Amino acid sequence: MDINEDVVRHLTELRRRLLIVFSCFLVSMCGGLYGSPRILQYIKSTSAADVQWNVFSFTDGLFIYLRCAFLIAMLFTLPVLLYQAWAFVRPGLTPREAKGTLAYVPVSFLLFLGGVSFSYWVVFPMMLRFMVKMNQTIGATETYGIDKYFVFMFSVVFPLGVAFEMPLVMLFLTRLGLLTPERMNVSRKYAYVGLAVVGACISPPDFVSHLSVTIPLLVLFEISVLFSKRYARRQAAFPYSDPNPDPA
User: Fold this and answer.
1) pLDDT in tens, 132-178
2) Which of 121, 160, 187, 220 sits most deeply, having the most CB atoms within 10 A of its CB?
3) In sequence order, what are the beta bridge partners of 54?
């Protein structure tokens, strides 16, 4: 009977926290619907190339409008979702564990935001100019659809935003014991090759654009290795210290 009551209590708590996340998403979605026209106009005015947006069906503008509002809502809901997930598991953690894991929430969001900002302001303009120049060299008439423009932009911006989470992921794997300094030293050359392939998949076949993507990925990897090795050394020196380091 006590087990059933405990399960019901946890389900009720989970439902309450999911309701908070959903409410935040709805409020952010309403704000996104209100601000989408201004945001889309800002994106168009700050485009790296003089690109005219065109629509090829009656629903193109509506879908872009809703997609922009949805992404705004997701961006503002993400930190709330991370915090609510932490708050749900908080009763099962010690005070030091709770403090250490709570730091992952803002750091994870800031890393993702930094990756999105870097890719939008640095990587995407270079790729866009390269693509436009390639189309002009073959004498093609430039007519760009708004839907294809945003699909291309999102395929560049968000993968790098996720890639900027690498330091936290490797630190977490080190905490679980899946990564060690020895394994990281052995796998470094393979990681370099893999990151170079990822950079080639994201960037166009242009040497400068490829370096602009690959070099930040390699730097992030080395920062991740540095943090992981530092944590591993601290755990070796103080085996009974807090297993949940502050990622900041």
Assistant:
1) 888 888 888 888 888 888 888 888 888 888 888 888 888 877 777 77
2) 160
3) 145
Torsion of CA 151, 153, 159, 162, to 10 degrees: -110
The pTM is what? Answer: 0.76
Task: Classify the phi-psi angles of 53: left when phi > 0, otherwise alpha if psi is within -120 to 50, otherwise beta.
Answer: beta
Bridge partners, 145 (sequence order): 54
Residues 6+ apart with CB under 8 A from 39: 68, 72
- Exposure string of 148-183, with b = 16+ CB inside 10 Å and e = fewer, is ebbeebeebbbbbbebbbbbbebbbbbbeeebebee
Nearest-10 crossing angle of helices 104-118, 146-163: 140
CB 185 within 8 A of CB 148: no
Across all residues in the chain, what is the average pLDDT? 82
Q: Give the separation between CA 246 and CA 83, rounded to whole angstroms.
A: 15
- 3-state SS class at 186: helix
